[in-house]
Write a structure and sequence with these properties.
The chain has 291 residues and is an alpha/beta fold. The chain contains eleven helices and eleven strands. Bound molecules: iron/sulfur cluster (SF4) (2 copies). The site of one iron/sulfur cluster has 12 residues, from helix 1.
């Protein structure tokens, strides 16, 4: 994604790595959770011509009741997207080389230089593909391109530290401190994540914590208290990112169910209370744009 202004300083080019060890209920990039390419289906664009059915070598597309559905027989070859002139079927995810990616990134260097920007490795979880991330970070450093890693922290500590030290800054997405709620809402435990953040913050000079504020999931008084207690011992800058259901439509395009249809963006007063509690723990807090 070019011209990003939310993933670190200046104007940035963000590289989304596909595949994540977490599956957060509020994820607004659900197409980045699976490590494999996936077919997105845009029902509103479909002309029901049937070209995709004819092109599919696996007979993995059904056309019934006015809808085109991809079945479990799909092998993610992408032929259906190639033949769909309406662009109602598109592939999310493609294999790239570091050299190919750099050729794209280098087109944006003029924007980085003018704005103090650079490249952000995001996802998904970029450190779930550590060799590629390391090679990309090294190539950017050789070219004096500023780099940021956005991570959920659920990776081996050695991988995290090695990559972080090869990057200029780290955005660490912390979802919940409560262990049971973290497991329920992300599908993974958080003990290693909390440990990793503490170790990372002690060793890297530019770590920021980002908390997605999701009403009813991580914004109760008890949750805020736990964040404040834990982060008081870390003392990194914190950014609160208000939940927004911008990613909801993507779940339908992937044939998945979105669990937070009834959840609304947090009220400004609730965000201010959250921020105040963290500030009282000695933390520098900002409230970012809705996520
Ligand atoms: S090829 Fe595209 S427009 Fe035609 S039926 Fe398939 S998805 Fe719809
Ligand atoms: S990606 Fe390939 S296998 Fe899957 S539905 Fe499309 S054509 Fe069929």
């Amino acid at each position: 994604m070019r011209y990003s202004t939310h993933d670190g300083p200046g104007i940035r080019t963000t590289v989304f790595f596909k595949g994540c060890p977490l599956a957060c209920w509020w994820c607004h990039n659900p197409e980045s959770q699976s490590f494999q390419p996936e077919v997105l289906y845009f029902a509103e664009r479909c002309r029901h011509c049937g070209d995709c059915l004819a092109a599919c070598p696996e007979n993995a597309i059904e056309h019934a009741d006015g809808a085109v559905r991809t079945t479990a027989a799909c092998r993610r070859c992408g032929h259906c997207a190639e033949v769909c002139l309406a662009e109602a079927r598109r592939m999310a995810g493609r294999r790239v080389t570091v050299a190919g990616l750099l050729a794209e990134i280098e087109k944006d260097v003029v924007f980085f230089d003018d704005s103090g920007g650079g490249v952000t490795l995001s996802g998904g979880e970029p450190l779930a593909q550590p060799e590629f991330a390391a090679a990309l970070l090294a190539a950017c450093r050789e070219r004096r391109i500023h780099t940021v890693i956005e991570t959920c922290g659920f990776v081996p500590l050695g991988t995290l530290l090695e990559a972080a030290l090869a990057a200029d800054a780290v955005l660490f997405d912390l979802k919940l401190v409560d262990a049971a709620k973290h497991r329920l809402h992300t599908g993974a435990p958080n003990a290693a994540i909390l440990r990793n953040l503490a170790e990372l913050a002690a060793r890297h000079p530019a770590v920021s914590v980002r908390i997605p504020v999701v009403p009813g999931i991580n914004d109760s008084e008890a949750d805020v208290h736990q964040f404040a207690q834990y982060l008081a011992g870390i003392q990194t800058p914190v950014e609160l990112l208000p939940y927004h259901h911008t990613g909801a439509a993507k779940y339908a395009r992937l044939g998945r169910t979105y669990r937070l249809d009834a959840t609304r963006q947090p009220a400004a007063a609730d965000l201010a209370r959250f921020a105040d509690a963290l500030a009282r723990a000695g933390l520098t807090v900002t409230i970012g744009d809705a996520q």
